[in-house]
Design a protein that fits this description.
With 154 residues, this protein is mostly helical. The protein has one domain. It is 87% helix and 0% strand. It contains five helices and no strands. It starts with a helix and ends in a 6-residue tail after the last helix.
Length: 154
């Protein structure tokens, strides 16, 4: 059971953080350089509408498997390394940032695109871009902690 939980946990992290990394470092610069605001904002609204259900699923999987490993396998937070505490804390911060993105600027982006209000859509997209950039960096840090924490005595 521990092997399956760890596998599901890592796959969910790869989907979420990998998706953000791709969107931020590859898709964003190309879209910005080749598309005018109406096409760019419509593209992003569609990309997020397709990606965000995967993120919600990843969050559920990450929380469920992480908490199961901590409390079901290791019998609680007192029995895990500091690196697990750090991963959990950073993961919760990432989840809160994502929830804000989903319920605030993404909702505004969808409304702006539907109304063809390109200045408002651009403002919402800029906020999403900043928060996704922050979450990508936190995600990469969390992966580094998860992958190397036990060997660095964290």
């Amino acid at each position: 059971m521990m092997g399956f939980a760890m596998l599901l946990h890592v796959v969910a992290v790869v989907i979420w953080v990998g998706g953000m990394f791709f969107a931020y470092t590859i898709l964003r610069p190309v879209a910005a350089s080749q598309l005018e605001p109406p096409a760019r904002l419509t593209l992003w609204a569609g990309v997020f509408a397709g990606f965000f259900p995967w993120v919600w699923s990843a969050i559920v999987a990450i929380l469920a498997t992480g908490l199961w490993m901590i409390f079901g396998w290791y019998s609680g937070m007192a029995n895990v390394g500091l690196y697990v505490h750090a991963m959990l804390a950073l993961g919760i911060v990432m989840m809160l940032i994502f929830a804000h993105v989903y319920f605030a600027p993404f909702a505004r982006l969808k409304r702006a695109v539907a109304a063809q209000d390109w200045p408002a859509g651009s403002k919402s997209l800029a906020q999403i871009r900043m928060l996704v950039g922050i979450n990508t960096l936190i995600g990469l840090l969390t992966i580094a902690i998860g992958a190397g924490g036990r060997w660095f005595a964290l």
